[in-house]
Amino acid sequence: MFGKIIYINDNLAHVEVKDGVPVNEDLMNMHVIFEDEKKKILGEVADITKELIKIRFLGEIVNGKFIGGVIRKPNLSSAIRVITKDEFKLITGENNESSMMLGMSPLYDDCPIYVNVNDLFSNHMAIFGNTGSGKSWGLARLLQNVFENKNIVPFRSNFLIFDAYGEYHTAFKEINKINPNFNFKYFTTNVNDKEGTLLKMPIFLFNVDDLALFLNATEHSQLPIIEKMLKLVKIFAEDTETSEDYKNHLIAKAMMNILYTNQTSTSKRNDIFAILNDCSTEKFNLEAPVQGLGYVRKFRDCFIIDKEGNFTESILVTDYISSFINPDLDQYESRTNNYYTLKDLEKALDFTLISEGMLKNEKTYSDAISLKVKLHSIIISEASRYFEYPNYIDLNNYIASLVTCKTGHKAQIINFNLEDIEDSMAKVITKVYTRMLFEFTKKLPDRASIPFHVFLEEAHRYVQNDNDKYLLGYNIFDRVAKEGRKYGLIFNLISQRPVEISETVISQCSSFLIFKMNHPRDLEYIKKMLPNINQEIIEKQKSLQPGTCVAFGKAFKIPIIIKMTPPDPAPYSSNCDVENRWKA
Asked: Using the 8-state DSSP alphabet, how is residue 199 labeled?
């Protein structure tokens, strides 16, 4: 079949077809060996005509090991033959104590393809493909292979799947049938889903950046407002005499600022009443008794205006308000972390609005009001239920609770079904969880001792070039992509539109499983972003069958076509059966 090498051009050998020998129709994409007395060069058939076979060089076999890349080209007199099964194992991996089976080679009679577990899972990975190309099946089979693997028992693994469509519950809910020590935990955003645990995030573990995303902040001037709100809600949550005094102190200072303005008495009264309408305490409210000389009046009655336009009890009002001001409280900070709710946060924002002169600063007040409107809209929406955590818990114990089943056993796969919430809130949830995991893993005394693998289904919805860098100075997905690997926090992106994903995150991925993709913008983007992809890989994946992918990157010796075994059980990702649904 293979005749002489006619000439070598760049990374291609042009080989004549031997006279009288028919060309094997299945030769396309097969691997061949160029062999002479000194070296073995591995190549892949790239193009076939009746007279000529073009073979691309992939690497060299030296002392029984495959080395990617070719420095020394084969001699023109080299013998050419199809690769043997033993040689093929050098590039497809072998079944050993450090490996797992990934899939089969459709080119070599379903020969199993193994990958080194560390090479595949210690670095960020991306799975791309059109709708219907087999991405969900591929991910389900990938993780099922992890747990069916006899070489490594992944008891301490933590696979967190953020599931946009609720597809993976069926694929993993019976994972304990493989091994009774394996467990699946399922969080749901659907209150009617009785199989899952309703998603609950502790709002009191959110930091300033989390709250900025949560409240859809857009301006830097809103961050100090959020910082103040967070400071106040922690003080108020102490529920002590000091926290009550602090509230009264803030109310009194805001009122004194109003009293010393040039407004009319009517405007002053209206502003003071407005403050107490939103911010009042048991001791300081409109119905509170105010002691005069030989008489007592309600606070609201002290604001009667005389004929000259002045308060009849101006001295009494000033003295009463001043009695609540304590300058020492200006420096007070909460010394403990406390439990609080969304409504407590809203109350703290109300107090923030009356402090720091915000009432008189039109721009700052406008920024604060937009946060207040967003917070209130969340509180009265169904989304509020996801932030109604029942009791205080610290970050370490909260992360532990995520990976612990109700029975107290360790869960290895944790599925977050985000199907029932809008994309904007789902993005916030994935970002906050990523930030929490990053903070948790960074503080581990033994670095990377507890690896977490985060799978983001429909990653283009979340991992975007959005406003975070402008507002916060960073994007948590970009930061984890660049730094998370060394702490054991690993991203796995699943998407049909890689062009919409952050370039920084894609550039940090080391291994890729590319199912069939046709959109020219996505193909061009992948080619542009990934230095280890070439036009040949792009062309290969265009004609792939469902469930078959082109795999390349750190975990693979060469770009290779892999057929994934159908997952069992399969994810709930099938298309609508229109024919049967149409029938009467």
From this structure: P
The DSSP symbol for 311 reads B
Closest to 187 in 3D by CA, of 163, 212, 205:
163
Residues 157, 162, 165, 169, Cα dihedral to 10°: 20
The alpha carbon of 423 is separated from its chain's Cα centroid by a whole number of angstroms, namely 13
Q: Where are the alpha helices (DSSP H) in 463-511?
A: 468-472, 476-487, 503-507
Can you give the pTM of this predicted structure? 0.90
Cα 96 from chain centroid?
A: 33
> What does the alpha-carbon distance between residue 129 and residue 542 come to, in Å, rounded to a whole number?
10
460 Cα distance to chain centroid? 10
Q: Residue 513 in 3-state DSSP?
A: strand
**Category of 356 on φ-ψ map: left (φ > 0), alpha (ψ -120 to 50) or beta:** left
Single-letter amino acid, residue 418: L
**Are 79 and 29 in contact, with CB atoms under 8 Å apart?**
no
- CA torsion sign for 436, 440, 441, 443 is positive
User: SS3 for 314?
Assistant: helix
188 is written with which tokens?
Answer: 């749901």
CB 32 within 8 A of CB 55: yes
* C-alpha to C-alpha distance for 355 and 252, rounded to whole angstroms: 10
Structure tokens of 244? 């009550």
Q: List 395's β-bridge partners, or say none.
A: none
Decide if 211 contacts 230 (C-beta within 8 A).
yes
* Token pair for 166: 């609720």
- Single-letter residue type at 289: P
What distance lies between CA 47 and its chain's CA centroid?
Answer: 41
Q: Identify any residues that bridge with 321 across adjacent strands, giving them in sequence order.
A: none
Indicate the DSSP class of residue 106: T
* Tens of pLDDT, residue by residue, the chain (584 residues): 788 999 998 889 999 988 766 666 667 888 999 998 888 999 988 888 888 999 999 999 998 889 888 888 898 999 999 998 888 888 888 899 999 999 998 888 889 999 999 999 999 999 999 888 889 999 999 999 999 999 999 999 999 999 998 899 999 999 999 999 999 999 999 988 888 999 999 999 999 999 999 999 999 999 999 999 999 999 999 888 999 999 999 999 999 988 988 889 999 999 899 899 989 999 999 999 999 888 999 999 999 998 888 898 999 999 999 999 999 998 898 878 889 999 999 999 999 988 766 656 677 778 889 999 999 999 999 999 999 999 999 999 999 999 999 899 999 999 999 999 999 999 999 999 999 999 999 999 999 999 999 999 999 999 998 889 999 999 999 999 999 999 999 999 999 998 899 999 999 999 999 998 887 888 787 777 665 566 666 766 667 788 899 898 899 988 888 999 999 999 987 666 787 778 76
The amino acid at 571: P
Q: Tokens 């989390």 belong to which residue?
A: 210
Cis omega (within 30 of 0) for bond into 569: yes
Q: How many angstroms separate the most distant Cα atoms in the chain? A: 124
